[in-house]
């Protein structure tokens, strides 16, 4: 069965990164879905993005899958590539911002839950987020120059 993410030969990534809506199965996409779609594609590909973001590590996995793809990857940001979707957009060999489109890169955010005994783990989570922020900014600077 062909991937729902391939539309007219293009990889279309719309909706939330890392999850599919319970109410609308066409809204959102996961890293494994993108991997499976890429396995159906060959040659140079076009990726279209319109996403406010989602799960950062799914975005990173998709970024790496696109970087590993054998053909040229041209990314078109059609509306917004924010947060995790901005990580995906940076994977393109060429990135085209269409009229009015936005690219948003921001510091990572997260949530921890627990009592004060868990405070060292909470601090560790904050350190990991700060480290990821640095990697994402370096990736963007490499692309932008």
Write a structural description.
The protein is globular. The protein starts with 5 loop residues before the first strand and ends with a helix. It is of the alpha/beta class and 145 residues long. The strands form two sheets. Strands 1, 2, 5, 6, 7 and 8 form a six-stranded mixed sheet that branches. The mean pLDDT is 85. β5, α2 (56-68) and β6 (73-82) form a beta-alpha-beta unit. The relative contact order is 0.14. α1 (31-39) packs parallel to α2 (56-68). Helix content is 37%, strand content 24%. The chain is built from four helices and eight strands, in the order ββββαβαβαββα. It has two domains: 6-106, 2-enoyl-CoA Hydratase, Chain A, domain 1 (Alpha-Beta Complex), CATH 3.90.226.10; 111-145, no CATH class.
Could you write a compact summary of the structure shown?
The protein has helices at 31-39, 56-68, 84-89, 119-144, and strands spanning 6-7, 10-14, 19-20, 28-29, 45-51, 73-82, 94-97, 102-104. The protein is an alpha/beta fold.
What is the element layout, followed by pairings?
Elements: E1 6-7, E2 10-14, E3 19-20, E4 28-29, H1 31-39, E5 45-51, H2 56-68, E6 73-82, H3 84-89, E7 94-97, E8 102-104, H4 119-144
Parallel strand pairs: 2-5, 5-6, 6-7, 6-8
Antiparallel strand pairs: 1-2, 3-4
Give me the strand/helix succession.
Answer: EEEEHEHEHEEH
- Largest β sheet strand count, sense and barrel closure: 6 strands, mixed
Task: State the helical fraction.
Answer: 25-40%
Count of helix runs: 4
**Rg, alpha carbons:** 16 Å
Count of individual domains: 2
